[in-house]
Amino acid sequence: MKRLIPILFLLLVVSMALVGCASGGGGNDLLSDIEKRGVLRVSTDPNYEPQSFLDANGEFTGFDIDVANEIAKRLGVKTEFVTPDWDVITAGNWAGQWDVSIGSMTVTTARQEVLDFASPAYYYTPAQFAAADGSGIDALEDINGQVVCVGVSTTYETWLNGAGADLGLPADNFYAEPPTGVTIVPLPTDAECPQSIQAGRTDFQVFLTSNTVVQAAIDGGVPIHRVGSPVFSENLAAAFDKSSTLDNASAVKRVGEIIQEMHNDGTLRELSLKWFDSDLTASPTQ
Question: Domain 126-234: which topology?
Answer without folding.
Answer: D-Maltodextrin-Binding Protein; domain 2 (3.40.190)
